[in-house]
Structures are given as C-alpha cells and as structure tokens.
Hints:
Layout lengths: L2 H6 L11 E3 L20 H5 L4 E2 L11 E4 L7 E10 L2 E6 L10 H14 L12 H7 L2
Antiparallel strand pairs: 1-3, 2-4, 3-4, 4-5
Amino acid sequence: MFKRGAxxxxxxxxxxxxxxxxxxxxxxxxxxxxxxxxxxxxxxLVKNCKPVILDETAADYKPLVQTIDNxxxxxxxxxxxxxxxxxxxxxxxxIDLLNLQDKPEARQLYYSMLSYVNSDxxxxxxxxxxxxxxxxxx
Length: 138
C-alpha cells in the first residue's frame, strides 16, 4: 500500500491490494458462507490469486468478487466475474481452485461455483466484449 515508504527502507513493495468486496446474497455464494468483505475462509484462496485487470470494461460493470486495488494504481480488479459470451455465458475465476483442493474452503467455493453455473440463476446481465476478453485472459 505504501510503495514509497517501502522503497525508502530498501524493501520490496507489497502487491498492494486492500482486500475485496462481494455481494454475499449473490447466488454464487449459495453454498459458500461469506460476508461482503474478505475474511478467514478466503485466506488460502486469495493468497496467491492474481486478479484480472478489468479497467477496459464498462463503468457500471462490477465483478462478483472485486479486489480493492491500492490508491496508487486504482485498477478495477476481478477475482471472480461473469459475462455473456455469444449465445452463452462465462464465469471466470482467477483463484487457482484446482490446485487448492486440499483446502476445504477451496472445495466448497468450487462446489458453490459449479452449482451456480449449473442453475437457472446463472444468467449474466452484462457483456465483456470478445476483444477485451482476449486481452485479459491469457
């Protein structure tokens, strides 16, 4: 968060995110208990997560789980987000859930995500253009 102070002390600056926000009432979290902010069950999930920069999306586009960037960069960051895609839909997750299956919280979030995308509730209202998706997803 305080890049200049770290550099003055000869330290490597931290990545600098300030937690995240989400809507706990979202059907994405039907099987995963959460509050509107990061908490203990998210620790292993976000520890090595690399959120996706969504700066080029519409101003009113909100990720399902939005990382709060530091005030120096101020990117719009998506940890979990969804979009219409052609005649279908996509749910994108920047958390490496498959390599965290030894953690019960990872298994539970994965289960909740699969339940969500296999339900009638999975119907993204916003669309990220294919051009933007090609840029942000390797």
